[in-house]
Amino acid sequence: MTEFSFMSIGDSVMERTAGFCFWDEKENRAEFNEISNGEEGCVSYTGYCLDVTATTMTWLVTGWTEKGFLRQTKMKDTFTKTGIDRTVEHLKGEKSPKVIVEWKKLNVEKSKPDHPDQPGN
Known about the structure:
Elements: E1 4-8, E2 15-24, E3 29-38, E4 41-52, E5 56-65, E6 68-79, E7 83-93, E8 100-105
Antiparallel strand pairs: 1-8, 2-3, 3-4, 4-5, 5-6, 6-7, 7-8
């Protein structure tokens, strides 16, 4: 996940986001934490992987502000050759003003593997 950066399109808000993904040994799943600063103020997100296949990851994501619960969504990421396509299902709370539809791979060059130092590349 550290090789991707996201792109919003349309009438989306400007914001700065930082976060990280990690493996939760106790829950046996991928999780992430993220902080976004933008039009909605400071929003803290936590999420975890609900389902994974060879080409997709589905996440349950919950966001809060200093005022409390903000929203919960289910996101499905589909891995492609150029990045990740994303669909978002709003579950509860306020709908998000941002629309992330695609994550682009960073440092992609034709004919070069993503991880040349790993076996199989």
